[in-house]
Known about the structure:
By secondary structure, the protein is mainly beta. It has a domain at about 45-65 and about 280-385: 7 Propeller (Methylamine Dehydrogenase, Chain H). Helices cover about 5% and strands about 45% of the residues. The strands form nine sheets. Strands 3-35-34-33 form a four-stranded antiparallel beta sheet, with no helix packed on it.
Amino acid sequence: xxxxxxxxxxxxxxxxxxxxxxxxxxxxxxxxxxxxxxxxxxxxxxxxxxxxxxxxxxxxxxxxxxxxxxxxxxxxxxxxxxxxxxxxxxxxxxxxxxxxxxxxxxxxxxxxxxxxxxxxxxxxxxxxxxxxxxxxxxxxxxxxxxxxxxxxxxxxxxxxxxxxxxxxxxxxxxxxxxxxxxxxxxxxxxxxxxxxxxxxxxxxxxxxxxxxxxxxxxxxxxxxxxxxxxxxxxxxxxxxxxxxxxxxxxxxxxxxxxxxxxxxxxxxxxxxxxxxxxxxxxxxxxxxxxxxxxxxxxxxxxxxxxxxxxxxxxxxxxxxxxxxxxxxxxxxxxxxxxxxxxxxxxxxxxxxxxxxxxxxxxxxxxxxxxxxxxxxxxxxxxxxxx
Length: 386
């Protein structure tokens, strides 16, 4: 879920209470509403061509409206709940379970050595991945709503709610901070950053994608995913509210009320773009780029030239998660906790899996030979395709 930020001379005002009312007046594509404005499509019977099998399940605790994405490192899963519970599971077996001592608002990041989470008070808490023992904690400039990115030159990279990016060494010492000017009105979203070799990749309000140096926090390049347009401030919101994705030398991002665009990783030069609106996100593989749009359609584009490959529009207004490319399939989950498996070849339905009935807002994560989901109610499901 995303909300609105309006810049003031000395502070950021969160317009969470008014966002739904304001946006309903200007657009039917409203990522801020907890329930779909239009009636979601009813699911009809499919003819399965595959099976989604649950290898293991666990319960971590509810997310309380936050998007608490789990971290996957090898066979280990690190997951958090809004009440401050943090746990590690190896092949579904709980290794440790602790209380962080305060509520958690940002998901989990890990490199297998450190585990990091963020709080609404702007604290970043780091723990030893082997034992769950607290390693350090630091404070950033505002709330942390996204999972820290851990890795990339042994860094812990955290994005705060005011769009600053902080990088910390493994001992918690701050290495650098990156900030840029943002529009006066922007979405309050749970988007973090992606690490790719020498760069930290981050989408920003106003439709900008920026690559920041891992070494020193300097901007390597800036590219335009979407250009704000419209008669009002709300209509001109064109923010990137999901993680950039990359494959080889191609990096792609998608904006709300904007476009999906792919760029050359080293230079930021535009490769192609297509009009679409998404706050859920996208994925990429050697063949295509896959986007869940605001209306509940999954769109597939050719990775090289952006040509439309297929679209699956039978999930209308079901508040889809980010899609995940898994071998010859694309997985996506919805507001009722139903996981839909699509054939990568043509987007047709291959299988379904019913979780606990609560929404899947956190990005599905690759896990072993399949993938992992975490529901808003705190259910963890490790799924494989048969």
